[in-house]
């Protein structure tokens, strides 16, 4: 569940440095959307190749823009309309935190309640974290887990249930102390979805539809991507180049559609529906009829900063390029930051084949959402920065040009890195064992089992047994290191290194081939050991 990629993070941070100081004209906010919005959206889509885009703008609690641009699918060329639904990725987290807030408003739950007291079977690796983890802690990315740790339980898909994921949580070893620092995760929002069911008696899906979609009139929205839905977009990506993001745009065959992962990032919504969602927040939790969906206390709680987001959150690939914003915190399902003297509440979202962004500027009484049906992040970011500059009264920059330059630089740097590999990845024809001897079933405590088998002609084949479609040939690289070639080219390839001692395999480790691989491909967190082995 790609909440935020390294490319995205670098672009956001670098663009912040490119913006001049807040202009004095910012004291008077605009009453109309940008007059060049349509033309700019079309330019951004054309520059980066995004097939379709959805844009919604709410001002003073009223919808002023809800539009679709481009096409839903490269195959059908059906146009995007205000009712076309796009995956919003990790923007879904705010729906999960709002569901818990409703339970708090109803007196069925407290933010300070211990999760272990409310959710049977909940257990962290660390007994102290198990005993002290509160409902609030589930939502603030400070559990001690590492960035994206455990995401391979759901990425790129899974046969697991939500209960299976809650159980596997106990095997994820922490990287830091409990509540010590921020590290973005998806897994605990799945646990939060299970908590909604444990407390309410309804599944997360039922609760969200009844208590959020229904009262808000979000009639287009769904809790899971369904390509057969007449309002759905096709999901597009560039997966046939040397790294993901390069090569021709294609419609992705495999998409993230596991029900278990829905609470952390699988909601789909239209521009018209996102406008209704934003209007509720702009109206301090009230519906158009004046009734409350969320109490004023709940709105305040959900947007109140809880944990500082460190500048190196997204790893060395970003921090080497530029310093990330220093004034950024995480609340309960929302990032809270200061941009040019203004508080901004935001969250982005990413799934395979789609990206989204949602921004609130409370003192401007404006909010906007942008979603695309491809992974061409520059198109989304260019429109986001165009709107931010407009509503904050700043001079416009060449956002499209800046983003293209950033992207080219990062791709160039990555391709160079991949040509100058560490010694262990420099090809040779040596190996400690004959190829069939690497065959066997390997087990990781939290993931489960993975199988390496020898096929006719000695070709090795790797298969992740709980991830449908995650399989393919395993090619020898050097010594005891191999490289995956997944049949689904949308899955990031990995190096697989077997640790051989005296002719026996004791363990194996994995790491992504591409330095730009999304953190959700957390191969580094796997600790496979032989379960059963045939030689």
Description:
The structure is a single chain. The chain has 15 helices and 20 strands. The protein is an alpha+beta fold and 535 residues long. The strands form 4 sheets. The protein has an 8-stranded antiparallel sheet with strand order 2-1-12-11-10-9-8-7, with helices on both faces. A hairpin with a 3-residue loop joins β13 and β14. α1 (6-18) packs across α15 (399-419), α3 packs across α9 (204-216) and α14 packs antiparallel against α15. The radius of gyration is 23 Å and the shape is globular.
Features:
535 residues, alpha+beta, Beta-lactamase, Lipocalin, 8-stranded antiparallel sheet, 20 strands, 21% strand, globular, disordered N terminus
- Strand tally, please? 20
Q: DSSP strand (E) fraction?
A: 15-25%
Global morphology: globular
Number of helices: 15
- Per CATH, the architecture of the largest domain is 3-Layer(aba) Sandwich
Helix content: 25-40%
Count of distinct structural domains = 2
CATH topology annotation of the largest domain: Beta-lactamase
What structural class do you assign from the helix and strand content?
Answer: alpha+beta
Q: Which regions contain 5 or more consecutive residues with pLDDT less than 50?
A: 1-7, 9-30, 314-325
Terminal CA distance reads 37 Å
Reading side by side through the largest sheet, how are the strands ordered?
2-1-12-11-10-9-8-7
Which CATH class of the largest domain applies here?
Alpha Beta
Q: Compute the CA-based radius of gyration.
A: 23 Å
Largest sheet: 8 strands, antiparallel
The CATH superfamily of the largest domain turns out to be DD-peptidase/beta-lactamase superfamily
